[in-house]
Write a structure and sequence with these properties.
4 strands, 3 helices, CBS-domain, alpha+beta, 135 residues, two-stranded antiparallel sheet
Length: 135
Protein backbone atom coordinates (compact mmCIF):
# COMPACT_ATOMS: atom_id res chain seq x y z
CA UNK A 1 0.00 0.00 0.00
CA UNK A 2 1.33 3.41 -0.89
CA UNK A 3 0.76 5.16 2.44
CA UNK A 4 3.77 7.38 1.84
CA UNK A 5 1.96 9.09 -1.04
CA UNK A 6 1.76 12.82 -0.40
CA UNK A 7 -1.53 14.41 0.65
CA UNK A 8 -1.21 16.80 -2.30
CA UNK A 9 -1.88 13.88 -4.67
CA UNK A 10 -5.35 13.29 -3.20
CA UNK A 11 -6.55 16.58 -1.77
CA UNK A 12 -9.36 18.56 -3.32
CA UNK A 13 -8.09 21.91 -4.56
CA UNK A 14 -11.14 23.65 -5.99
CA UNK A 15 -12.74 24.42 -2.67
CA UNK A 16 -16.07 25.92 -1.81
CA UNK A 17 -15.39 28.18 1.18
CA UNK A 18 -17.27 30.52 3.47
CA UNK A 19 -16.35 33.32 5.89
CA UNK A 20 -17.26 33.72 9.54
CA UNK A 21 -20.00 36.14 8.47
CA UNK A 22 -21.73 33.75 6.05
CA UNK A 23 -25.31 33.13 7.20
CA UNK A 24 -25.98 29.54 8.23
CA UNK A 25 -28.76 29.19 5.67
CA UNK A 26 -26.32 30.08 2.89
CA UNK A 27 -23.69 27.66 4.21
CA UNK A 28 -26.28 24.89 4.38
CA UNK A 29 -27.36 25.59 0.81
CA UNK A 30 -23.73 25.35 -0.36
CA UNK A 31 -23.33 21.93 1.26
CA UNK A 32 -26.45 20.65 -0.47
CA UNK A 33 -25.84 22.33 -3.83
CA UNK A 34 -22.30 20.96 -4.15
CA UNK A 35 -22.92 17.58 -2.50
CA UNK A 36 -20.17 18.11 0.07
CA UNK A 37 -19.94 17.58 3.82
CA UNK A 38 -17.43 20.24 4.92
CA UNK A 39 -16.84 23.92 4.26
CA UNK A 40 -13.53 25.54 5.19
CA UNK A 41 -13.97 28.96 6.80
CA UNK A 42 -11.40 31.43 5.48
CA UNK A 43 -10.49 35.07 5.96
CA UNK A 44 -9.88 37.67 3.23
CA UNK A 45 -6.30 36.51 2.65
CA UNK A 46 -7.16 32.82 2.34
CA UNK A 47 -6.09 31.97 5.87
CA UNK A 48 -8.02 29.22 7.60
CA UNK A 49 -10.32 30.35 10.40
CA UNK A 50 -12.16 27.07 10.98
CA UNK A 51 -14.30 24.43 9.34
CA UNK A 52 -18.00 23.71 9.33
CA UNK A 53 -19.44 20.28 8.66
CA UNK A 54 -22.91 18.91 8.24
CA UNK A 55 -22.88 17.60 11.80
CA UNK A 56 -22.20 21.13 13.10
CA UNK A 57 -25.68 22.09 11.98
CA UNK A 58 -27.05 20.07 14.94
CA UNK A 59 -25.94 23.04 17.08
CA UNK A 60 -28.39 25.31 15.24
CA UNK A 61 -31.31 24.25 17.41
CA UNK A 62 -29.90 26.28 20.30
CA UNK A 63 -29.31 29.44 18.25
CA UNK A 64 -31.41 32.24 16.83
CA UNK A 65 -31.66 30.97 13.26
CA UNK A 66 -32.34 34.43 11.83
CA UNK A 67 -29.09 35.94 13.08
CA UNK A 68 -26.75 32.95 13.38
CA UNK A 69 -23.73 32.76 11.12
CA UNK A 70 -20.95 30.28 10.43
CA UNK A 71 -18.85 31.65 13.34
CA UNK A 72 -21.51 30.41 15.78
CA UNK A 73 -21.07 26.72 14.96
CA UNK A 74 -17.71 26.28 13.21
CA UNK A 75 -14.88 24.24 14.70
CA UNK A 76 -11.76 26.31 15.28
CA UNK A 77 -9.25 24.00 16.99
CA UNK A 78 -8.23 22.04 13.94
CA UNK A 79 -5.59 19.55 13.03
CA UNK A 80 -4.03 20.59 9.74
CA UNK A 81 -1.86 18.97 7.14
CA UNK A 82 0.73 20.31 4.74
CA UNK A 83 0.86 19.21 1.07
CA UNK A 84 4.01 17.11 1.71
CA UNK A 85 2.48 15.17 4.61
CA UNK A 86 1.71 11.54 3.81
CA UNK A 87 -1.53 9.63 3.52
CA UNK A 88 -0.35 7.65 6.55
CA UNK A 89 -0.21 10.89 8.58
CA UNK A 90 -3.70 11.82 7.39
CA UNK A 91 -5.05 8.36 8.24
CA UNK A 92 -3.53 8.53 11.72
CA UNK A 93 -5.09 11.95 12.35
CA UNK A 94 -8.46 10.70 11.15
CA UNK A 95 -8.28 7.64 13.40
CA UNK A 96 -6.96 9.37 16.52
CA UNK A 97 -9.32 12.33 16.43
CA UNK A 98 -12.35 10.90 14.63
CA UNK A 99 -12.12 13.72 12.08
CA UNK A 100 -13.67 13.32 8.66
CA UNK A 101 -11.89 16.20 6.92
CA UNK A 102 -8.52 17.85 7.31
CA UNK A 103 -7.54 21.20 5.82
CA UNK A 104 -4.26 21.35 3.93
CA UNK A 105 -2.25 24.52 4.59
CA UNK A 106 0.78 25.85 2.72
CA UNK A 107 2.47 29.05 3.84
CA UNK A 108 -0.45 29.92 6.10
CA UNK A 109 -3.00 29.67 3.29
CA UNK A 110 -5.63 27.03 2.69
CA UNK A 111 -4.68 25.08 -0.44
CA UNK A 112 -6.83 21.98 -0.14
CA UNK A 113 -8.84 19.57 1.93
CA UNK A 114 -8.61 15.82 2.31
CA UNK A 115 -11.41 13.65 3.63
CA UNK A 116 -11.79 10.10 4.86
CA UNK A 117 -13.63 9.38 1.61
CA UNK A 118 -10.55 10.50 -0.39
CA UNK A 119 -8.40 8.04 1.56
CA UNK A 120 -10.92 5.21 1.16
CA UNK A 121 -11.10 5.80 -2.60
CA UNK A 122 -7.30 5.84 -2.75
CA UNK A 123 -7.02 2.51 -0.92
CA UNK A 124 -9.85 0.98 -2.93
CA UNK A 125 -8.30 2.06 -6.23
CA UNK A 126 -4.91 0.49 -5.62
CA UNK A 127 -3.88 -2.47 -7.68
CA UNK A 128 -3.35 -5.48 -5.46
CA UNK A 129 -1.28 -8.55 -6.13
CA UNK A 130 -1.87 -12.04 -4.78
CA UNK A 131 1.44 -11.65 -2.91
CA UNK A 132 -0.06 -8.76 -0.96
CA UNK A 133 -2.11 -11.32 0.94
CA UNK A 134 0.71 -13.80 1.59
CA UNK A 135 1.87 -14.25 5.15
Amino acid sequence: MKLLTKVSALMSRNLITVTVHTPLAEAGELLVKHGIHHLPVVNATGGLEGIIGKSDFLKVFTLDRDTASVKDIMSTHLAKLEPDDTIRTAANLFALNKFHALPVIDGGRLVGIITTLDVIRFVDGEQTQLGDYAK
